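Lab meeting, item 3. Inverse folding demo.
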């Protein structure tokens, strides 16, 4: 994805040979090569900053989702506890009502 934005590989930089003039390397050729390296470094820095920003955003999203999961689990546990205690209460009420009916109406088991 970002590879298309980078002009030089480390191998190309390492293996770069400049032609030698009578006074040394051709300054224009060296300057052009250094301009390419500078452009690559600027691109690398932009990519790094973009990825760091994206990472921070993703981390915030993850923390938010984890908190939401914790809240939902708590809600589910509360709901389960409430429904099971309601069922137990209803069963207890039915048993007591049955016992009272036996006493009042004199029904034998």
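The presenter then showed the designed sequence:
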């Amino acid at each position: 994805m970002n590879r298309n934005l980078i002009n030089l590989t480390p191998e190309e930089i390492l293996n770069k040979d400049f032609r030698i003039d009578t006074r040394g390397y051709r300054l224009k050729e060296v300057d052009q090569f250094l301009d390419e390296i500078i452009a690559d470094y600027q691109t690398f820095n932009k990519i790094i900053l973009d990825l760091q920003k994206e990472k921070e955003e993703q981390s915030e999203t993850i923390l938010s989702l984890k908190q939401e999961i914790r809240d939902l689990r708590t809600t589910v546990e509360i709901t389960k506890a409430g429904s099971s205690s309601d069922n137990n209460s209803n069963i207890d009420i039915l048993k007591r009502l049955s016992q009272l009916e036996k006493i009042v109406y004199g029904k034998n088991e």
